[in-house]
Amino acid sequence: MEIALYRKYRPRSFEDVLGQEQVSGVLSEAVKLGNLFHAYLFSGARGTGKTSVARILAGEIGTTKNDLHEIDAASNRGIDDIRELRQAVLSLPYESKYKVYIIDEAHMLTKEAFNALLKTLEEPPSHVIFILATTELHKLPETIISRCETYDFKKAGREILKELVLRVSKEEGFKIDNAGAELLSVLGDGSFRDTLGVLQKIISGSKDKKISLPEIEKITGAPPRDVINTVLEALADGRSEEALRFIGNTAEKNTDMKIFIKLILSKLRLALLNRYAKDMRKDILRELGAEDYEFIKRLSEKPKVNSKTLQRLLKAYIETPDAYISQLPLELAVIDIAEEEKEKEN
């Protein structure tokens, strides 16, 4: 069985960490200066590198595998588990200066477990360092947060994910075009792990070493670029009936409507940036490639492409996961835009 790409390309040093300079840079310098804290708290969305950085930090301070302990709080969440942990931390490291305990999904601990852990965090043995990782910081008690040095992990930007896809594809012996890499960066939704997971799915289903945009769209179920562009052009030209027809056709194919709206939002955003942030045009061109940029440029020149349109569609994106009819929020957004245009004309 092949190693999962996200494991194979997991960063091994602070220099390898992508998109988290605000974390890796500070921790790297702290290690060099010997300014270590007894408890760290890493928070951020899934797949942003929290566990990887925790392992790197442990390695940088010289903690070996025998003295590194990873605990999944989702399955070890009770007070008895924490009591066992409190006893375990009292023993000295086998071969390192520090024993490091990484507690993943820390927000899953019970109230009683948190209370038990708090006592250890208040007066930890000098040879122990805790690293708590969570995707839901708001679920942690303030008493726990206040006793940790906290670091926020950002979602990876699309450009970073796109470069990652291009690099990993090349190292795996595959060729992928810019448009395909761009789509994968959107589907990854800011997560390194999810992006590489989708890429692995594409690679596994590829018949040759060349990965095309249509191939990615077919395997992932993402709507074709032409459909996205047609809906956008229809909205930009005030052809709401045509936009609604394409939305209906797309929904009938069981397309994930959240992904559909996300791709529409992505292009609308770039169109507005191209209009109002002229200094960003070169970056947009580099990100999209010449063909897609020409479409974005034409779109940016349409008066009906404006911030209100983007806001309506953003609202539809937020409402889609809970919608009884998946395409309804998007349909309502298109209708609202059309009605607003009619009112202006009258």
Automatic annotation (TrEMBL):
Catalytically driven reaction(s): DNA(n) + a 2'-deoxyribonucleoside 5'-triphosphate = DNA(n+1) + diphosphate
Domain of life where this protein originates: Bacteria
Annotated EC: 2.7.7.7
BP GO terms, sorted: DNA-templated DNA replication
Transmembrane segments: none
AAA+ ATPase domain sequence ranges: 36-157
InterPro entries: AAA+_ATPase, DNA_pol_III_sug/sutau_N, DNA_Rep/Repair_Clamp_Loader, P-loop_NTPase
Broad enzyme group: transferase
Recorded GO MF terms: ATP binding; DNA-directed DNA polymerase activity
SMART domains reported for this sequence: AAA
Keywords in alphabetical order: ATP-binding, DNA replication, DNA-directed DNA polymerase, Nucleotide-binding, Nucleotidyltransferase, Transferase
SUPFAM superfamilies to which the protein is assigned, alphabetical: P-loop containing nucleoside triphosphate hydrolases
Any one annotated GO CC term: DNA polymerase III complex
Alphabetical list of NCBIfam families matching this protein: dnaX_nterm
Quaternary organization: DNA polymerase III contains a core (composed of alpha, epsilon and theta chains) that associates with a tau subunit. This core dimerizes to form the POLIII' complex. PolIII' associates with the gamma complex (composed of gamma, delta, delta', psi and chi chains) and with the beta chain to form the complete DNA polymerase III complex.
Role summary: DNA polymerase III is a complex, multichain enzyme responsible for most of the replicative synthesis in bacteria. This DNA polymerase also exhibits 3' to 5' exonuclease activity.
UniProt similarity note: Belongs to the DnaX/STICHEL family.
Name this protein carries in UniProt: DNA polymerase III subunit gamma/tau
Organism of this sequence: Candidatus Campbellbacteria bacterium CG22_combo_CG10-13_8_21_14_all_43_18
